[in-house]
Here is the input.
Amino acid sequence: MLQCTAVTRIPLDDTLTALITLPGEHPTPTPYALCELGEHPTPTDHAALLRPADNPDRPALWLFWTGTGTPDTPTHRIDTAPWCPATLHHLTNNATLPCSLFNRHPTGHSWDITDPLGDLIAGTLTTDDPQGRPHP
Ligand SMILES: [Zn+2]
Ligand SMILES: [Zn+2]
Here is the structure.
């Protein structure tokens, strides 16, 4: 499953207000957020993690927005949501990977979602083959 490609401008005032209500450090949010869900139909809210709680067991702060209406005026909602309880268990090395989405998220779990842009960037950074690159 590919990652949803929705992007939104973060409502900075609302985001900063929500962030200062949480204990701990307050990193400056980026001006844009990418939906972290897998591809989903339009009526489903997009979702981006704003900040995990200091305690990993506590609900994290998420930005939800609708894709309906004009692109410049999406409806944003900032809310805390508990983590998805699902975990992926690797039998070969006995490691567990918790789902990095919120509870009752509408699409597949985070390990089923691939980000083609992230893979593309990582592929560019990890290639050691200078063939095909222009030389200065
Ligand atoms: Zn989305
Ligand atoms: Zn999940």
Summary: The pocket of zinc ion (ligand 1) is lined by residues 4, 6, 35, 37, 40, 46 (CB under 6 Å). Residues 7-116 form one domain. The helical segments are 12-20, 116-126. The two ends are 39 Å apart (CA to CA).
